[in-house]
Specification:
single chain, 7-stranded parallel β-sheet
């Protein structure tokens, strides 16, 4: 099943992803692409199945695929939705989109960081609700970034790009990884979570979801953090214990939060949306024209390489 399709015929792709027009155009320029539902795959006989994080790929899902499917491509960097062991057992190549969306997500991190520290949700609501009636010198006071310490949990490609942006704002940098990074982007390594949290004024969660990182920010660790901490999450929703963060926001231990990712997306905890000290966006960190086009291009390149019998760098299985 993992043999590449006959090169004398165009590759047929069945897409379970609602693609942006600029991305779909790239696939359509190089292959035959059709929108699909899992139940219709048998009639389409695709060579490649295009997935998104909304599709859970496990043994049961794979068992229902038609025999024509020779490869899987996920329109994402993250692989949380994929049982890789099951994919390997089926003998299918899997491609993803590493590196392409790092700039977009780093920009989103800075947007959330600025919006949280400058209380943007409150300021916008004040205007929209017609409550701006005077110039108040003491109203909606935020904090400046210069001189503050940004703690980055997960100094990978995205974390490094955020670090370089934060440096331009005059911030100090500290990070915590499982092991010391080769490229530290000017940040200081904190070997323990305790040292890390005690050093940060603003916490950026930029790690993937793993057994080690889930619930990293819990009650015990929040107790170690500085008072007035600002929390920004562009990693995965399950890095945070929701109840613990909400309690810390209520008590003032956490000043504000900027969140682009949540548990159980898109059915997120409504308590976050009810708070004026939370800036929330619907997992749009990679939602730029450049990133969406680039994600399509890197998957198209991988599919063409696979078709030629080559192994592309972004092949996961």
């Amino acid at each position: 099943m993992n043999d590449a399709p006959d090169q004398s015929f165009p590759v047929r792709i069945a897409s379970l992803v609602p693609l942006a027009p600029i991305a779909r155009a790239e696939f359509a320029r190089r292959f035959i692409i059709e929108d699909a539902e899992p139940a219709s795959l048998g009639t389409l006989c695709p060579d490649v199945l295009l997935l998104s994080p909304a599709v859970r790929v496990d043994a049961a899902f794979l068992a229902g695929l038609p025999a024509s499917v020779g490869a899987l491509a996920t329109y994402s960097v993250g692989l949380d939705h994929i049982d890789l062991d099951a994919v390997r057992a089926r003998g299918l190549p899997m491609f993803n989109t590493p590196g392409i969306l790092s700039n977009a997500v780093a920009d989103q991190a800075m947007l959330l960081l600025l919006a949280a520290t400058r209380r943007m949700a409150e300021a916008t609501a004040l205007l929209r609700e017609g409550r701006w009636t005077d110039l108040w010198s003491s109203h909606i006071l935020g904090v400046e970034l210069a001189g503050r310490t940004l703690g980055i949990y997960g100094l990978g490609d995205i974390g490094r790009r955020v670090a370089r942006r934060a440096t331009a704002f005059g911030m100090r940098l500290v990070y915590h990884n499982r092991r010391r990074a080769v490229d530290e982007a000017g940040a200081t390594f904190a070997a323990t979570a305790e040292e890390f949290l005690a050093s940060a004024d603003i916490l950026l969660l930029a790690a993937p979801s793993t057994g080690e990182t889930r619930n990293f920010l819990n009650r015990e660790r929040l107790a170690l953090a500085r008072d007035g901490l600002v929390v920004v999450n562009i990693g995965r929703g399950d890095l945070i214990d929701d109840d613990a963060l909400l309690e810390a926001l209520e008590s003032g231990k956490v000043r504000a939060a900027g969140l682009d990712v949540f548990r159980n997306e898109p059915q997120i905890d409504p308590r976050f949306l009810a708070r004026s000290d939370v800036v929330a966006t619907p997992h749009i960190g990679s939602a730029t024209e450049e990133a969406r086009r680039g994600m399509a291009t890197v998957l198209c390149d991988a599919i063409e390489a696979w078709r030629r019998g080559e192994r592309p760098a972004n092949r996961i299985t």
